[in-house]
Amino acid sequence: MSEYLMIRWVHVIAATAWFGEVVTINFVLIPALVRLPRPEATRFLAAVFPIVFRLASVLSAVAVLSGATLAWQRYGATPEVLWTTTYGRLFSVGATLGLLLTGFHFVLEPRLDSMICTAAAKGDLELSDKVIRLLCVVPRVGLVVIGGVLLMMMIGARGM
């Protein structure tokens, strides 16, 4: 198996797992969370979401780094194709959105994690409610973005 193919498999698996995690958050974890009584919801938040956040960060970083490696190997000699063709522009927009979403995981998720830990440690139900409200919106936006990234990357990578 060539190095390119191995990196490609790592990229596909990491991106798919990342997408699957976002789907699970939106359709399993958040609905379960909002049905729990507030004290239990706070404990659930503290037990589950820091782990989920770290996993998303790792998967997104692996997907972006392996994707950047693949792009460099494939287009390093002819980078103009990334902005002069329709497929290249789709690929570039998808890559940029994926990079921004990964940035979210490393910059803003730690703040959410801190809020969750503080709410759990202090038994602060008001802060817990604020986090739950954020979690009812942020992962949905993330699902739309990562879905768009996957679509653009699949079209862009195949069309070049």
Polypeptide structure, described:
This protein has one domain (3-159). The chain is mainly alpha-helical and 160 residues long. The chain starts with a helix and ends with a helix. The protein has seven helices and no strands. The chain is elongated.
Could you tell me how far the N terminus lies from the C terminus, measured between alpha carbons in angstroms? 22 Å
Strand fraction: under 5%
Q: With helices defined by DSSP (H or I, 4 residues minimum), what is the helix count?
A: 7
Helix content: over 70%
Estimated radius of gyration? 18 Å
Biggest sheet descriptor: none
Mean pLDDT: 93
Number of domains: 1
What pattern of helices and strands is seen along the backbone? Answer: HHHHHHH
Principal-axes shape call:
elongated
Structural class: mainly alpha
- Counted beta strands: 0
Indicate the low-confidence ranges by residue numbers: none
Summarize, please.
By secondary structure, this protein is mostly helical. The chain contains seven helices and no strands.
Walk me through the topology.
Layout lengths: L2 H33 L2 H38 L5 H4 L1 H22 L1 H14 L2 H11 L2 H22 L1
Helix pairs in contact: 1-2, 1-7, 2-4, 2-5, 2-6, 4-7, 5-6
Task: Please name the defining characteristics of this protein.
7 helices; elongated; mainly alpha
